[in-house]
Amino acid sequence: MKHYKAYTPSRRNMTTLDYSEITKKTPEKSLLEVKKKHAGRNSYGRITVRHQGGGNRQKYRIMDFKRKKDDIEATVIGIEYDPNRSANIALIQYEDGVKSYILAPQGLTDGDKVISGKAVDIKPGNCMEINSIPVGTLIHNIELNPGQGGKLVKAAGQSAQLMAKEGKYAHIRLPSGEMRLVLANCRATVGVIGNAEHANVKLGKAGRKRNMGIRPTVRGSAMNPVDHPHGGGEGKAPIGHAGPLTPWGKPALGYKTRNKKKQSNKFIVKRRK
């Protein structure tokens, strides 16, 4: 982490990452795509996600979450910053010359070798079926369906733990504390995702939030009754309900919105804390 002298009020509490993991500053042009901005609007032009818009321009890095090139060793060319995610990414080049981006696990540096396949070493960055991974190993980028590509545990500093194997399913403890069944022939990558200090960054000022494409949030209590359940009243009035509500009248704290008939409920052994 990088801390600053308090020569302005915002600098007093501002911290940034020192980017010590980064070894390559410019992205691979062949793996870039244009990323359009939608400002929270759907195909009808209506805002469906509030408080989005503006922000710095970004290009999307094409990520390889499937890791399908089996038994071909790849060399890490560099660790890069990715504006689209909290984790850093690693540019790798396979022996046949193909380049791709993967999530950079802790401890992966330039010149390291990574490989995917059925019988590969248990070391950070290697990808294989969960069947081949020993119980107790920390993993990330976990598939939910074979060949679909990694869906679970892709944020900075996160990892899941393989707790048990039973028949065609594996028991995996996710970062939330949830215990979940995943098909044992799904793939996962060994190791903990790097850039763990990302969670400790303090933005320090409103401008950094705007650079991230996040617009201001107005308090419900500052609105009129027609606009929000908390609105209205003389001066700073209490919200007038048993607990805080969303703008659409749903409870805002502790209200479970997951569908009780959701198909994947049967795969959850233990709910998150």
Textual characterization of the structure:
With 273 residues, the chain is mainly beta. The chain has helices spanning 9-12, 206-211, and strands at 2-3, 15-16, 32-34, 59-61, 74-80, 89-94, 99-103, 113-114, 127-129, 138-140, 142-143, 150-152, 160-166, 169-173, 179-183, 187-190, 268-270. Strands 9-16-10-13-14-15-17 form a seven-stranded antiparallel beta sheet, with no helix packed on it. It is globular, with a radius of gyration of 22 Å. The mean pLDDT is 94.
Percent of residues in beta strands?
15-25%
Calculate the mean pLDDT score and round it: 94
How does the overall form come out from the CA principal axes?
globular
The CATH class of the domain at 18-199 is Mainly Beta
User: Any low-confidence stretches, pLDDT <50, length ≥5?
Assistant: none
For the biggest sheet, the summary is:
7 strands, antiparallel
Query: Which structural class is indicated by helix and strand composition?
Result: mainly beta
Strands in their spatial order, largest beta sheet: 9-16-10-13-14-15-17
Number of strands: 17
Radius of gyration of CA atoms, rounded to a whole number = 22 Å
Distance between the termini: 29 Å
Number of DSSP helical runs? 2
The secondary-structure element order is EHEEEEEEEEEEEEEEEHE
What is the CATH topology classification name of the domain at 18-199?
OB fold (Dihydrolipoamide Acetyltransferase, E2P)
CATH superfamily of the domain at 18-199: Nucleic acid-binding proteins
The CATH architecture category of the domain at 18-199 equals Beta Barrel
Percent range for helical residues? under 10%
